[in-house]
């Protein structure tokens, strides 16, 4: 249920604003469900331990993707619910909103999933998520010491990410 | 070191002098030959190196080009030849797609000359790695090679299968 209208935002490379923290937390998963990154800025309530929390989030997204594709009224070709989809089939959801938060999601064809949980008034974060993907490529993928599929430990990436997310108002 | 601004990141496509690249690459191959001695072993290493490059570079390609999923293998092959290999994205090689088989699972990519091709197994590993990260298992082999006296460089790319995303956790955990 939406109490607040969303505001139109077109995020572009960082412009410092004074609004500070809008984001609650962020996850980055790869195609095998490994949580590459979890960042928390403002999360008053923890209900599960980190492993369970990550699995829950990944499972939620997996199911949501499947569900939204099957419910698509414009797509004639629908498989059975629960059957894994070939990449490229079906539509893909990009956000959902409750009265207390908004979850924005982006998945790349290579299976990298970026999730940002923010204040419910936040507008469309698709461009922001694309920018974060660009940061991932620059600081993580191009780092020869990083081995793909393992959790990200890069200081530079964390700092750049932190700076950028804080600037999204 | 402060993080670079977004503009700097997105507009930077670093270029390397072609001769420097050839010499560096040649030096790697020479060293591999010294360490491993067998040509077969060296080719396997080059393929593995190409694979390791491909699985990372696919993300850079996706981020810079902003393309979403290719609908089928035909579109993928076109994407490889025209965008991935062509300048200014990567590698600076001019390529064209041809010789599709009946089910559209196997095609040939013909490449014009480039310094990279003098020791070319890295390229086949590269394509294989990149495609695997977008859920396509392929087999990439060289069918024509100017160094062996053919008239062009030709790669055959065969789609083995498309791997759908599976739920990775077991239900009882």
From TrEMBL, chain A:
Q: Which SMART domains match?
A: Sybindin
Annotated localization: Endoplasmic reticulum; Golgi apparatus, cis-Golgi network
Picking any one GO biological process from the record gives: endoplasmic reticulum to Golgi vesicle-mediated transport
Q: Does the keyword Transport apply?
A: yes
- Which keywords annotate this record? Endoplasmic reticulum, ER-Golgi transport, Golgi apparatus, Transport
Q: Does the keyword ATP-binding apply?
A: no
Q: Which Pfam families does the record associate with it?
A: Sybindin
A cellular component term from Gene Ontology for this protein is: TRAPP complex
- Give the domain of life: Eukaryota
Sorted alphabetically, which InterPro entries does this protein's record hold?
Longin-like_dom_sf, TRAPPC
Q: How does the record describe its quaternary structure? A: Part of the multisubunit transport protein particle (TRAPP) complex.
Tell me which family the UniProt entry assigns to this protein: Belongs to the TRAPP small subunits family. BET5 subfamily.
What is the name attached to this protein's record? Trafficking protein particle complex subunit
Automatic annotation (TrEMBL), chain B:
Q: Which GO terms describe its cellular component?
A: endoplasmic reticulum; Golgi apparatus; TRAPP complex
CDD domains registered for this protein in UniProt: TRAPPC3_bet3
Keywords noted in UniProt: Endoplasmic reticulum, ER-Golgi transport, Golgi apparatus, Transport
**A GO BP term, please?**
macroautophagy
Q: State if Lipid biosynthesis is listed as a keyword.
A: no
> What start-end ranges are recorded for coiled-coil regions in this protein?
none
Instruction: Kindly list the places in or outside the cell where this protein is found, as annotated in its UniProt entry.
Output: Endoplasmic reticulum; Golgi apparatus, cis-Golgi network
| Annotated InterPro entries | Bet3 (IPR016721), NO_sig/Golgi_transp_ligand-bd (IPR024096), TRAPP_component (IPR007194)
Protein family? Belongs to the TRAPP small subunits family. BET3 subfamily.
Q: How does it assemble?
A: Homodimer.
Function, in words: May play a role in vesicular transport from endoplasmic reticulum to Golgi.
- The protein's name is Trafficking protein particle complex subunit
């Amino acid at each position: 249920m939406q109490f607040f209208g969303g505001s139109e935002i077109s995020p572009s490379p960082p412009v410092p604003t004074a609004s500070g923290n809008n984001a609650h937390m962020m996850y980055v998963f790869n195609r095998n469900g490994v949580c590459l990154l979890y960042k928390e800025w403002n999360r008053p309530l923890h209900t599960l331990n980190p492993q369970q929390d990550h699995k829950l989030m990944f499972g939620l997204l997996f199911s949501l993707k499947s569900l939204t594709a099957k419910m698509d009224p414009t797509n004639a070709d629908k498989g059975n619910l629960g059957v894994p989809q070939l990449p490229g089939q079906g539509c893909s959801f990009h956000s959902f909103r409750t009265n207390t938060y908004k979850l924005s999601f982006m998945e790349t064809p290579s299976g990298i999933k970026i999730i940002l949980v923010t204040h419910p008034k936040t507008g469309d974060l698709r461009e922001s998520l694309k920018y974060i993907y660009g940061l991932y490529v620059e600081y993580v993928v191009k780092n020869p010491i990083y081995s793909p599929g393992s959790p990200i430990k890069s200081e530079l990436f964390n700092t750049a990410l932190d700076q950028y997310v804080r600037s999204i108002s | 070191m402060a993080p670079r601004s977004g503009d700097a990141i997105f507009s930077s496509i670093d270029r390397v002098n072609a001769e420097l690249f050839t010499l560096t690459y040649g030096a790697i191959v020479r060293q591999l030959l010294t360490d491993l001695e067998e040509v077969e072993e060296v080719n396997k290493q080059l393929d593995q190196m190409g694979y390791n490059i491909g699985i990372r570079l696919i993300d850079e390609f996706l981020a810079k080009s902003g393309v979403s999923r290719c609908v089928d293998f035909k579109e993928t092959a076109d994407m490889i030849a025209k965008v991935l290999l062509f300048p200014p994205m990567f590698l600076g090689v001019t390529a064209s797609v041809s010789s599709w088989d009946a089910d559209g699972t196997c095609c040939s990519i013909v490449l014009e000359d480039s310094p990279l091709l003098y020791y070319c197994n890295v390229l086949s590993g590269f394509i294989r790695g990149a495609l695997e990260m977008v859920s396509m298992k392929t087999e990439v082999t060289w069918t024509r090679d100017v160094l062996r006296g053919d008239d062009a460089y030709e790669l055959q790319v065969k789609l083995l299968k498309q791997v759908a995303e599976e739920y990775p956790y077991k239900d009882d955990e």
